[in-house]
């Protein structure tokens, strides 16, 4: 259950009507039964349902360590269908943020309600995967605008491109992991960022994947200008909904190792 800061009063959680319904009617919990709540920003609690089933009593905080050791942003040129599943599965794989992209060959123009729906899917998936952080789904951006924010000033950037002979993402990730940033290697770099006053930027990766028709030459060119490295995910052409999940799996496999 994800609770907003306004719902916490000392050691009590004021449950919303929807949460009361979910706990009492859907999960059939009784007063005294325990459930887990999270704030979506790293804090988890074991909570007991109160006598009137309208509140929860915090019993203890829970230490969980389910986050990737780096921040991963997925910039996904919106496929015609299937983005619900990508949001769910990318959340399971540890993504920190998803930026839906309007590219030259995308056709989807999602309503604000659709974006709210993707955010709810991310929340449910984060609960299911016991994530500490609920990924943020941003409003869609056109590719050139997205590059203003997600570029090499704040992350190591990769753009997935089928067919051409680019280095494999796995090779590039291993290079990034082993590269000596400030002389200490990526793990030292990471611990420096966790100091109370980080002296260095957080180690982060941005991964961009194209739509069904692929990126255009000019979209690739502006990305490369912004510091993106084109990478391959292998010799087979993956669907626009498969490529991001393969990319995220590779990132997790390299940085969790
Ligand atoms: N005809 C398109 C092309 O040649 O670019 C195919 C696009 S593919 C269905 C959708 C997106 O998934 C691509 O734009 C790319 O970002 C990613 N993708 C699919 N297979 C890939 C691969 N083997 N290597 C890298 N990226 C891939």
TrEMBL record:
Keywords: Cytoplasm, Methyltransferase, rRNA processing, S-adenosyl-L-methionine, Transferase. It comes from the Bacteria. It is found in: Cytoplasm. GO terms for biological process: rRNA base methylation. Pfam families: Methyltrans_RNA, PUA_4. GO terms for molecular function: rRNA (uridine-N3-)-methyltransferase activity. Residues 15-51 form the Ribosomal RNA small subunit methyltransferase E PUA-like domain. It is an enzyme of class 2 (transferase). It catalyses: uridine(1498) in 16S rRNA + S-adenosyl-L-methionine = N(3)-methyluridine(1498) in 16S rRNA + S-adenosyl-L-homocysteine + H(+). InterPro entries: Alpha/beta_knot_MTases, PUA-like_sf, RsmE, RsmE_MTase_dom, RsmE_PUA-like, tRNA_m1G_MTases_N. GO terms for cellular component: cytoplasm. Signal peptide: none annotated. NCBIfam families: PRK11713.4-1, RsmE family RNA methyltransferase. PANTHER family: 16S RRNA (URACIL(1498)-N(3))-METHYLTRANSFERASE (PTHR30027:SF3), RIBOSOMAL RNA SMALL SUBUNIT METHYLTRANSFERASE E (PTHR30027). This is Ribosomal RNA small subunit methyltransferase E. It comes from Thermocoleostomius sinensis A174.
């Amino acid at each position: 259950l994800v609770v907003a800061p306004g719902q916490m009063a000392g050691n009590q959680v004021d449950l919303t009507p929807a949460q009361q319904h979910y706990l009492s009617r859907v999960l059939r919990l009784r007063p005294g039964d325990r459930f887990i709540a999270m704030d979506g920003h790293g804090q988890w609690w074991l909570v007991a349902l109160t006598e009137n089933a309208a509140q929860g009593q915090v019993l203890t905080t829970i230490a969980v360590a389910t986050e990737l050791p780096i921040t991963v942003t997925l910039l996904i040129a919106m496929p015609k269908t299937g983005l619900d599943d990508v949001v769910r599965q990318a959340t399971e794989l540890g993504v920190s943020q998803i930026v839906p992209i309007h590219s030259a060959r995308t056709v989807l123009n999602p309503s604000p309600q659709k974006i709210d729906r993707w955010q709810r899917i991310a929340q449910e998936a984060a609960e299911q995967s016991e994530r500490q952080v609920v990924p943020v789904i941003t409003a869609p951006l056109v590719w050139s605008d997205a590059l203003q924010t997600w570029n090499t000033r704040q992350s190591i950037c990769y753009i997935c491109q089928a067919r051409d002979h680019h280095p494999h993402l796995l090779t590039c990730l291993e290079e990034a992991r082993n590269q000596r940033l400030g002389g200490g290697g990526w793990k030292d770099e990471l611990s420096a960022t966790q100091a109370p006053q980080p002296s260095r930027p957080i180690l982060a990766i941005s991964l961009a994947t194209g739509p069904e028709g692929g990126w255009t030459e000019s979209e690739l060119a502006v990305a490369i200008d912004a510091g993106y490295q084109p990478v391959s995910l292998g010799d087979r052409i993956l669907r626009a909904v498969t490529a991001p999940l393969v990319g995220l799996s590779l990132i997790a496999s390299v940085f969790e190792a």
